[in-house]
Predict the structure.
Amino acid sequence: MTYPIEKFKDIETPFYYYDSDILRHTLRTISEEISKHIGFHVHYAIKANANPDVLNIIKEYNLGADCVSGGEIERSINSGFPAKKVVYAGVGKADWEIELALDYDIFCFNVESLEELAIINEIAEKKEKIAKVCFRINPNVVAHTHASITTGLAENKFGIALQDIHKAIKVAKALKNIEFIGLHFHIGSQILDMDDFIALCNRINEIQDDLEVKGIKLKIINVGGGLGIDYNNPSENLIPNFKLYFDTYAKYLQLREGQEVHFELGRSVTGQMGSLITKVLYIKHSSTKKFAILDAGMTDLVRPALYQAHHKIINLSSTEVKETYDVVGPICESSDIFAKDILLPKLHRGDYVALQSAGAYGEIMASQYNCRKLPIGYLSDKL
């Protein structure tokens, strides 16, 4: 990734910089790989990055939208995603959000409990609508990722338990305003070990075999997303290995004739195209440390404070001899730390610094804690 620093001088830091070329390259790669597999469909997970300019590019590549709130449904529709390609998940769908989704005639609700199913049916009946639903099943599959972003274990709040599948389907088939069309799964995020996805395939195969014994056939298998990115060496691995990812499902998932496989990719679509651009405010010396204090903090990029996540940090303004720094923000919290004891070319007040691989779960998770301004995201071809 290249950074047009001269153009940055007219923009107030901190801000997000999105490389449009990298985003388009990523989307072309996805399109090329799914075209090799009949029945594969990708929905972009809006929660990763909902910047309108970013969404305008993504929708050009014929992807659907994966939403987890009424606000995301509105954002996706307003950005041009067709309602017939919108799927809606979430453990706590409010009545107004269900009404909104029904009014738009979205493709499918990913339902997470029988209690939710009953409310969707009740609201659909009042609106004289038929709600298409997939049941989100908790497959109890271990994902090798951070504990805070696993979603497929029995202890997680997401999904319907394996032992309740038959009961849920029986209830759905008895409801007049519900059309049951398939099953939905998601085991976690930032997964790089394909064995995790193979384990999910094996579990889905077992479930399908069991259902077919009872005469139940599925039209849709939604495997969620979860494909990770390389946070350590983003420049060397800008484009995730989508070929291996999709080929894994094509090889190990035992599909029936006419079945569709739906994916919900977020981080792997937008993660590597974005960087948080910030300036050095001060270099502070203590008896044991040298702190580089930036004008960006955990309000702008919360992942390091929340998950102890790693983002590669580069000095855009200096190529001097490297020194060791703790890179921190200005927020009145001890957890407002981006990295400890890292080597960077000597930093000075006013130097531009980039925190890479921040295109997913960066701008969208920003807050106004300490009454700070929200960072703005800029596309490279609009600077």
Q: What stands out?
A: The domain at 20-271 is CATH 3.20.20.10 (TIM Barrel).
